[in-house]
Amino acid sequence: MDPIITSLSLLLAIAIATIIIILKQFHARLPLPPGTMGLPYIGETLQLYSQNPNIFFSSKVKRYGSIFKTQLLGCNCIMMASPDAAKAVLLSKPHLFKPTFPPSKERMIGRGAIFFHQGPYHATLRKLVLRAFSPDSIKLLLPHIESIALSSLHSWEPRPLLTTFHEMKTYAFNVALLSIFGKDEVFSYGDELKRCYYTLERGYNSLPINVPGTLFHAAMGARKKLAGILAEIISLRRGGESEDSSLLASFMTDAEGLSDEQIADNVIGVIFAARDTTASVLTWIIKFLAQNPTVLHAVTEEQEAIMRSREGKGLSWEDTRKMRVTTRVIQETMRVASILSFTFREAIQDVEFQGYRIPKGWKVLPLFRNIHHSPENFTDPEKFDPSRFEVAPKPNTFFPFGSGIHSCPGNELAKLEILVLVHHLTTKYKWCMMGPQDGIQYGPFALPQNGLPIKISLKE
Ligand code: HEM
């Protein structure tokens, strides 16, 4: 090779290496965000969970500003309570921050599930999930969702006392099975799937000790059984000619070549994502409507007008698009309740952010609840006022379904099943809350105390 070219290449390589070293040193010199790391290993976990987590977060924001560091259960964390920061992590720089979950959760749901991935495999799954939950697909589910809502409400009538969250979990579970399998399997496999899934979820928040007698062990056994039932359904489907628009049909399109195991992981993952979230929001709606008679009156008027116009026929997709007041109630409920207080990501390399250094491997938590409850984003934020959504919120201040490449693909289905249930509830029933009404429990979603016990009866 020409000696001049060799020397030039050498000089260029040295220059690049020098720039990289200088940049690394510059990054290393940037400070970490302010904050305290607490005790060795447990960090500030006790402070966070021994009180209402909002008090922990708000006092930190007051003291350190909207970006601060802490340590939870051995993980170094950076919390972000500003709209810009949440946008950067979730929407504009998702390649720098990957989703992260404890390994025991991955084992329980299954490592192939959509939440745990980035890149081409995630994009393939997301395309398939979005197809199954698009408005065109879920429109076809509407009559079946309506019959699930009616039979749930009917089953509540004779009961003297209901735990709202418990009943809403059953409703959301049945709608999730419908959207995943179509209506046939819901009837043939529903009870068995329910039994296994309920055992699985009991182990979800338990210590991950896999020895006989522990909840975790029972959960792993139920996980295996669930995978067996799903394999059976998949093999039956492969033999037949199903052309429905269910999630399973979408996963089984040959072109994408998902294995049975990957399909099972994602079916379990979607049930996990769909059930407690939707049930928590419905539980809060029941509470806020009971506590705000003017809002309940406006919702009931809207729903009664729709009921009169449908003249005894089932709800149509167009009817659900006319439910504007009820839709604002859903939005305001999701803002005030913020059932997912935050989400987790992990920095995949050292990142410079607003003058701070986020070291590789640190967890990054956009704090949805703080953003939804900041007076800078929502006037009088503690007040339940659905009319505020007559005007769209400021950009990046409202994240009920997350944002960016991992945002919730089931959001249209969730809203539809809530609208359908609220339609039949407000037009036919009245209810009142029993017991204390102000407590909140976190497990892990924010919920009214004791799952909101209520008494329900038919309107005269
Ligand atoms: C009101 C009810 C619901 C709420 C509040 C909710 C909220 C969310 C949020 C905030 C995320 C993003 C989490 C993150 O970025 O870390 C998410 C993701 C997800 N949700 Fe929902 N969700 C609801 C209902 C549903 C339903 C009904 C389904 C399916 C039928 C569903 C399926 C999913 C899936 C599969 C993901 C992961 C997406 C991905 O990683 O690409 N969700 N949800």
UniProtKB/TrEMBL annotation:
**Might you give the EC number(s) for this enzyme?**
1.14.14.137
Sites where the protein binds heme: 408
List, alphabetically, the InterPro entries matched: Cyt_P450, Cyt_P450_CS, Cyt_P450_E_grp-I, Cyt_P450_sf
- Which coarse location class applies to the principal site listed for this UniProt protein? membrane
Q: Which cofactor does it need?
A: heme
Task: Report membrane topology.
Answer: Single-pass membrane protein
Q: According to its record, what are the GO cellular component terms?
A: membrane
Enzyme class, first EC level, given as a word:
oxidoreductase
What PROSITE patterns does its record include?
CYTOCHROME_P450 (PS00086)
Q: Which Pfam families match?
A: p450
- Provide the protein's localization: Membrane
Q: Which key words tag this protein in UniProt?
A: Heme, Iron, Membrane, Metal-binding, Monooxygenase, Oxidoreductase, Transmembrane, Transmembrane helix
- Reactions this protein catalyses: 2-cis-(+)-abscisate + reduced [NADPH--hemoprotein reductase] + O2 = (+)-8'-hydroxyabscisate + oxidized [NADPH--hemoprotein reductase] + H2O + H(+)
Set out the biological process GO terms recorded for this chain's protein. Answer: abscisic acid catabolic process; response to abscisic acid; response to water deprivation; sterol metabolic process; terpenoid biosynthetic process
Identify its protein family: Belongs to the cytochrome P450 family.
Q: How is this protein named in the record?
A: (+)-abscisic acid 8'-hydroxylase
* Species this protein is from: Salvia splendens (Scarlet sage)
